[in-house]
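Narrative summary of target 7.
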Amino acid sequence: MKKLLTPLLAALLLTDGAIAAADSAVDLTVKGRITPSACQPAITNGGAIDHGKLSAKDLNIETLTILPEYRLQLSIRCEGPTLLALNTVDNRAGSALEPSLHGLGLVNGSEKLGNLTFSLADPVSESGSMRPIVSSNNGATWMSGSHLTHGLLTAVTSMGSPASVPTAFTTLDATLVFYTQIAPANTLTLTQEVPLDGHATLQVKYL
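Modeled conformation, tokenized:
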């Protein structure tokens, strides 16, 4: 009898569960688009800058030390006119002095060494000079700005465009500006050589 009752009991339980699921349901939706064209970004010098050796005694004691800015050339080549934006991934997340910026790594596992920030300057497409714009709400609205970070989308628009909306392009050349800031020396243990360890990934986001 046990062998006969077990399948029957299981069937009853499954039936009851199906009724309960039908009474409480929610729809799941998946959306997206496949773009017919692809874009490839490239940065001169492999995207790397080197500030060389800095003496600890030359750092500001109580304020940020601002290092010389660096400029590398960014080029983006697409297979056809494409709407896109750029943003970054901070591969040293948690080590920046401000969460919206990129970190330079940690000293002794807990002391934040400083900030690395980027901006997009002098963009030029096949149509001529452009201007950078940014969005903080995933592209719902745009405003003038050149900051390039993980908390924003950065795109370009035509110089003569009265509205701040992204413009499609096939080729884009621009200057990627690097800004490096070292934390006040009185917040760091600098008894031995400390490497600047900023590392970020530039991402293309199709709009």
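The chain has one domain: 39-48+56-206.
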